[in-house]
Amino acid sequence: MMKAVIYTRVSSTTERQNTERQVADLKAYAEYRKLEIAGVFEEKISGAKKNSERPILVEALEYCEANSIDILLVSELSRLGRNAFEVLEVVKRLVDNKINLFMQKEQFTLLDENKQPSTFAPIMIATLSTCAQLERENIKFRLNSGRAQYIAKGGKLGRRTGSVKTIEQKKEEYKEIIALLKKGYSIRNIASLCKVGNSTVQRIKKEFKI
């Protein structure tokens, strides 16, 4: 049975977004293809971050290489980089290590049965990643334009007064995570046990200097 790894990412580091839907959909695909899921890597980090600043993505790729994983499953190509160059760098790394890639949104698989990229794979990857990059830039432009108009009309950006959580509130909200960190549990295990993203655990660890 071929081994698969799931990598998911959402941009928000708050609890407003989660990776549950991505994981569920990719698990369903793995079950349909009779793939053994060797690992699930979930990341909450801005899509504007460089791949070198995405610790879970880096960990997922290293895990695939170290454990002879056959295929990496992602919800869409844009999960693999903030621009076309970074996406292509990841794709080349996968090809060099004979690791296939499945993109659910695009319904596209990188390698053929002989673990070679299909004839049109490089063109498809370059086109799709460029389109994703342009879409992000258009969204960014519209957001910045909207903010500028809002400020011009007298609006104020930032948190409302009193909306920032105190240290004591955070200690209470994240007491289970803090307790597990102090016991020496790994970030991934804590994230799984507490049903939060790895980035949340990393943030609490850093904030409380555990």
UniProtKB/TrEMBL annotation:
This is Recombinase family protein. CDD domains: SR_ResInv. Pfam families: HTH_7 (PF02796), Resolvase (PF00239). GO terms for molecular function: DNA binding; DNA strand exchange activity. Residues 3-154 form the Resolvase/invertase-type recombinase catalytic domain.
